[in-house]
Specification:
With 406 residues, the protein is mainly beta. The protein has 2 domains: 198 residues, Immunoglobulin-like (Sandwich), CATH 2.60.40.640; 185 residues, Immunoglobulin-like. The chain is built from 2 helices and 25 strands. Strands 2, 5, 6, 9, 10, 11 and 23 form a 7-stranded mixed sheet that branches. It has a 5-stranded mixed sheet with strand order 14-20-19-16-17. A 4-stranded antiparallel sheet has the order 12-13-15-18, with no helix packed on it. A hairpin with a 2-residue loop joins β9 and β10. It is elongated and about 95 Å long. The N and C termini lie far apart (86 Å).
């Protein structure tokens, strides 16, 4: 009788497991309270977990987790062994890991709880830490990603899960006065001409300020002086994004440079001068400049190049000005006075005249904040912890704050 009992229990359990494996919710997804789920440090991430089942589903627990992580991975050649072999470099840093049990309790019996037939809505909420949180980022060799995930814990059976990502924006107390100041740089060189005479070539570049929001143009001026007989190819201005992926405590590094927008123009003639006045360089929807400690560091610069012919007689001049892209800063974009171009040597552009307007107090109004989808597009957010039963929004595109200028 004892063995018959065991056989009967085993048969019932097998049938239960087979039936349970096929029983998946018809709908299992998150709905955030915010129409655009964008958050900053210290804010509450809240919403509803929607579950719709055709028949009752027994479970041990129904729980929700909120996770955040920075993750990097790339492949590089390993030559330490004496022969070139491909080696995978990867690292992960946990930012957030919180859990809430919505139904049931840990260690409960499998039949102690069940979700009854029909549609159910379970509220959830998590508070983000008040520390500096890096901005959401999806890139070629890694990501900074935040998400909520719900799991129906059903021992011996499939565990239906659902997942949805959201955007986090880094907050930082910027020096607004510094970001509102112009930035300028001058590079000079000489080339030898007839009878070893040294002729001057200079490249002077200025921007109207140092800090920008997405949606604002970088307004720049340049002056190229060519006192030689050499002919150059062209002049270029490019907004460059630098992304540094770090692994193994910084001992491994992979860096990428992406040109986000650019302008091209003529070069100065021999014995001539070329000027750009109030040229605009667009800022697309990109992650904010990274200010926190993270495996992924994002920074920006304006690179202006006077392109030579790649010979020692016609050199290439290159000026790089750091650009900070922030969540909110002085929104007004002021163009420079053309009259300032000739006032003195380092006069392009002119410093904004704060007597006309209260320049530093014109801050982005967050009540009318707008967001744009990341220019990098959507990505698949499934990872090694997600099985074939995962449901929900499995692709994600971060969004970033933008301003509307007059």
């Amino acid at each position: 009788m004892y063995f018959v009992g065991i056989s009967s229990v085993h048969k019932q359990m097998t049938e239960y497991m087979l039936r349970g494996t096929m029983e998946l919710p018809e709908r299992f997804e998150f709905d955030f309270d915010r129409p655009t789920p964008v958050y900053r440090a210290g804010e509450i991430v809240s919403g509803r977990l929607i579950v719709d089942v055709a028949s009752a589903l027994p479970l041990r627990t129904l729980h929700v987790v909120m996770r955040g992580e920075s993750y990097v991975e790339w492949e590089e050649d390993d030559t330490e062994s004496g022969k070139t072999e491909a080696r995978i470099i990867k690292d992960k840093s946990e930012i957030i890991n919180l859990k809430r049990i919505i139904m049931g309790r840990t260690g409960a019996d499998i039949v102690a709880n069940e979700i009854t037939e029909g549609k159910h809505e379970f509220p959830f909420s998590f508070q983000l830490p008040t520390c500096k949180l890096p901005t959401s980022y999806e890139g070629e060799y890694g990501h900074v990603r935040y998400w909520v995930k719900a799991v129906m814990d059903r021992p011996w059976m499939s565990k239906p899960t659902t997942k949805r990502c959201f955007t986090v924006l880094e907050t930082h107390e910027h020096n607004v006065n510094r970001l509102a100041r112009k930035s300028s740089e001058t590079l000079e060189t000489t080339v030898c001409s007839f009878l070893c005479k040294s002729d001057l070539i200079s490249l002077e570049v200025s921007t109207n300020k140092q800090g920008y929001c997405i949606g604002e143009p970088i307004i720049m001026c340049l002056e190229c002086k060519n006192y030689s007989k050499s002919n150059f190819l062209e002049t270029r201005a490019s907004l460059i994004q630098r992304v540094a992926y770090r692994a193994h405590d910084g001992n491994k590094l992979r860096t990428t440079y992406n040109t986000l927008s650019h302008k091209r123009g003529d070069a100065p003639q021999s014995r001539g001068t070329l000027r750009w006045t109030n040229e605009e360089i667009d800022i697309p929807s990109v992650p904010l400049t990274t200010m926190s400690d993270c495996l992924i560091q994002v920074s920006y610069s304006l690179k202006v190049t006077l392109l030579g012919k790649r010979t020692k007689h016609v050199p290439t001049l290159e000026v790089i000005l750091p650009i900070t892209i922030v969540d909110k800063v002085c929104q007004r974009t002021r163009k420079f006075s053309r009259n300032s171009l000739h006032s003195h040597r380092l006069s392009i552009p002119g410093t904004p005249d704060t007597k006309e307007d209260n320049y530093l107090n014109n801050i982005t109004d967050l009540t009318t904040e707008q967001f744009q989808l990341s220019a990098s597009g959507e990505c698949d957010v499934r990872d090694g912890q997600d099985d074939k039963y995962i449901m929900g929004e499995l692709t994600f595109t971060p969004v970033y704050p933008c301003v509307v200028t007059d």
